[in-house]
Amino acid sequence: MATSLYDQVGGEAFFARLVDAFYDRVARNAQLRAMYPDDLAEPREHLVLFLEQYWGGPSTYSATRGHPRLRLRHAPFWIDRDARDAWLVAMQGALDSVRDELNDDQYAMLRDYFESTAHQLRNQ
Question: N or C: fewer beta carbons within 10 Å in the chain?
Fold first, then answer.
């Protein structure tokens, strides 16, 4: 039986490092920062829980927040090509910051997922 990516990368600790690196970049990007509340603690927690669940970890995200409904949850935000690209730059930078913890297949899976999802969430 194949193990989940969640288990392969070390579980919650890996996703917490990835998300922290991402939100450090969000905090430094005026365009992205404007889309988030003043306190980034809750969005950080939500993203960690979502990624854990998506990649085979515990289903805490759904238990506490319901179905992810990514398009619906992101609908209030103006996500045009520039916002999408800024988000991708921040996430790619975060992913690159944990690159040494991943093998090539794991890195590619995460990169492809983030790229695909960012394109799907564009609403302008």
Answer: N
- What is residue 2's predicted lDDT score, i.e. its pLDDT? 73
Q: Alpha helix locations (H) across 55-103?
A: 60-65, 70-74, 81-97
Options 3.30.420.10, 1.10.10.10, 1.10.490.10, 3.30.70.660; CATH for 10-121 is 1.10.490.10
Tokens of 89: 């730059």
Please, is 105 exposed, middle or buried when counting C-beta atoms within 10 Å of its C-beta (0-12, 13-18, 19+)?
A: exposed
Chain mean position to CA 51: 6
In terms of pTM, does the model score above 0.70? Answer: yes
State how far the Cα of 10 lies from the Cα of 58, in Å rounded to an integer: 13
